[in-house]
# Entry
Amino acid sequence: MLTSHFRRVAVAAVANALTFVGIAMFAVSSPAWGQDVDYSVDTAGSDDPVYPGIQPAGKAETTIGSQILRIYGTILMNASAADSVEVGQDLVLWPLPNSNTTTFPDGTVSRNGEIHDVIFTARQSIVGFQVKPADASADKWKASGRIEIDFFGGRPFDANNPQGRVFNQPRLRLGYLKIQNGNWSVLAGQDRVIISPLDPVSLSHVAIPLGATAGNLWGWQPQIRAEYTRGMGNATTLFQIGVVRPQFADTNLQALPGSGTALDNTTSGLGERTARPFYQARFAATIPMFESKATFGAGGHYGQERIGVDREMDSWAFTVDFSVPLHSRVRLRGEAFMGANLIPFMGGVIQGVGVFNPGGGAPTQFNKIGAGGGWGEVIVKLTNDNKNIFYAGAGTDDPKDSTLLPGSARSKNTFAWASYFRKVTTNVTAAIEWSNWQFMTRNFVAGLPTTNAPTGHGNVFNLALTYQF
# Structure
């Protein structure tokens, strides 16, 4: 009990220290910065980079030969403290059940809810490159391209270096070409999935968006899509339709490629073996509201994966998204979804198909795991100069219990968060974030879900310091 008390005191002290450091950073005076921050939903159709948080005040761009080159990025340092064991560690997905235990190297055992972590990391930093012709009139179709990477890739093996050291490899986030002619544009490459264009604003979750596994469907996937925009008075409509790589990577159904490999030697995946892509579409309308813009969108997704010679499992989703100004300095944003077999987008708390195999051999039952959920956040500009912004919100992913099977027992993941961003200089931002996570699992009898199994509860405090350009 005394050891547990000291652990609680230690994590509280670290959390307080992070808070005091953050407050000190926020208190630093900074030059006036008058750029308006536009949180309207649709970045589709825009070539501007999307930054996590407050946008920087200028561009780092130059003309090289016949091309305009823009470099952008976020140099990010995160320091976090958690009061329980979290899946994802420095990038929280959910807390492990608090009553379950962890065994330490000396043989002692502790409940997960009594173990606390402090983590420092810079591996969620990102850098991007954008190119477009300097002479926009040279071609009828206007072309541009983008490559964006972070440093959240795998840890390279080095027998002389501890594996816990974070020397992660670069990882492709976005990489696409885009051509546009009038109201039409075509994009080919890796980009955000069509059905889920929004993410909660966070500096603690940049490598994977905040709320992934807890109501925020997301993905950066190879695709080809067409977009059509049309003005209607003061309103604008956008229609997007495309095909996306049919990638599932569900460990319940197949073994994933071995670590350290670059090629899939045996199978590219059960989605790819259907010989059909994912099909996605979205329609959105943007209208004037409170001297700003409101956007409402609805999207659909359909795909399949082959689990037998003549047997396929569907994947589908219906989504809605919105970004609405409630006041000149207050905006409400969010998304909601319902569907089944949504593991490609981390839906269903990363559960796609449940498999029941009580006696060994071939499975006797396959269930598409249905799920519904969403997230919402309110954004408040505390000052007219946009240097102080408050964010708060909540989200949940609630798999349908009747579709769960043993081995797929995650029944709900819910979180709430609040954060405060302070623009310290033109390019430097400091942010403090608190998030609370509630995770539930189910027990099974004869393959049927029954009572609630152990649950997880966790609080995470994060201090972020960034230089954005």
